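USER:
Try writing one entry.

ASSISTANT:
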Amino acid sequence: MSKSLDTQSQLTVAALMRKVNLLQGISDAALQKLMESAVQRSVAAGTILFMEGEPVRGFYLVETGHVKISRHAQDGREHILHLLGEGDSFNEVAALDGGPNPATATAHSDAVVYCILRDELRKIVHENPDLAWAMIETISRRARHLVGMVQDLSMRSVKGRLANLLLDQAEANETDAVPRMLTQEEMASRLGTVREMVGRALRGLASDGIIEFDRHRIVVLDVERLRKEAEV
């Protein structure tokens, strides 16, 4: 369900925008224009926000929940590019160049997102070059991330890629425990492999005493050894 914002929702999205890395440092005038243009959408887990290859609608921000950005091979296999949460943005590339959506966005959990339509974004960027520069920086960081993914796929073993993923997840949660938000199937999709290989790698790390399973979490027992595995 999509809807325009009432006054309270405008205050909410304004607060959200001030937390978004992409929007740090841009002018209050640009933030105000973005806030006025934002359209709120509440979605249930599993809802497809947009499909790869479809015409672009706009640029998105996540208020609550998580959104999965992925691409699909011709045989149906999914490769997860990003898993985004509160304060993250997505679909900047298509919103800027007007081309089709480069990936599919799916609600990984119940979520609330905001969309700024491309035509509105274009006007705001035209009037506020600091926003254009911020978006360029964000796209550049995403490009570096994708280069790293290519390097991982070509140079690291599945066990090494998994170790790196667990380190990233633990760091993102600022703890030594990784919530099992990703299933083994989803881990495989992020690592460019199959579920059986992920399961084997997880069991190997557990048998080596590097991680352990605790209900719905994966607990990192030895961070330094996990870092060494990530370098292999």
